[in-house]
Write a structure and sequence with these properties.
single chain, about 0% strand, mainly alpha, 8 helices
Length: about 140
């Protein structure tokens, strides 16, 4: 079965309509949220999970990232980051960065990070780089 992915335009339309989803028909709102979650699981979640694992050594729930991203977008009506997502050339890439930044801020404000953790986290980040995962470049 082939799955048709959202275009950049469909993402932008969802982001514009997301803040008012709770004002309309609940069934349609839930369907829009489910479709958005499906796109997030495919396009955004794996990269956000990899980023947090590399930067903070923290595994994330795919479902949790989807819920978090949905809330972020639905609460973004007056947020300049939402405005930039509507304007930028690659909204999926920007959404990934926006969600990743927000998740990392949430983690740091909840758990905190001491100066003693810096070397350990740098080691995790270094070990998680693409080159380290894939090994040295073949000659």
């Amino acid at each position: 079965m082939s799955t048709v992915r959202w275009s950049d335009g469909e993402l932008r339309r969802f982001v514009v309509n997301a803040p008012s989803l709770s004002w309309g028909e609940e069934t349609l709102a839930e369907l829009a949220r489910q479709r958005f979650g499906s796109e997030l699981r495919h396009r955004v979640v794996p990269r956000v999970q990899a980023r947090l694992l590399a930067k903070a050594g923290v595994p994330l729930s795919a479902e949790g990232v989807c819920l978090f991203a949905g809330e972020l977008v639905e609460d973004s009506r007056y947020d300049r980051r939402r405005d930039w997502l509507l304007l930028c050339a690659d909204p999926w890439e920007y959404l990934t960065e926006w969600v990743g930044d927000a998740v990392l801020r949430s983690y740091k404000s909840t758990i905190g990070r001491s100066r003693k953790d810096a070397p350990l986290l740098e080691g995790i980040a270094a070990a998680s780089s693409r080159q380290s995962i894939e090994g040295p470049i073949a000659e």
